[in-house]
Amino acid sequence: MKRMTLKSYDANMGQLIDLSDPYDFNNFHDPRALNIPYQRLLLHYKDLLDKNQSYYLICKKGLHSSKAAIMLEYLGYDVTQVIY
To answer: In the prediction, which pLDDT does 40 show?
Structure first.
C-alpha cells in the first residue's frame, strides 16, 4: 500500500477523498478534499471510482483510509493513503 503525507499531496496528482462522516468533514477538512464517507465508498466504489484515475484517501485517524486503500488496491484501483 502506498502512503504519503498531506504536505506532499498536490491536486494535480489525483482526487483527494476524505472518508470522514459528513459531520466531522464539515467541522474539519482539507479544502481540496471531496467527502465520500467510508461506508458509502465501500458499498458503492464501482459507481464512485474510475480505475483509470488516481485517488488519495484520508481520514482523521488513518484507520479507515488504510483499510479502504488496501481493499481498493486489491480490486485494481490506483489509491494512496494520505496521512495528516
So the answer is: 98
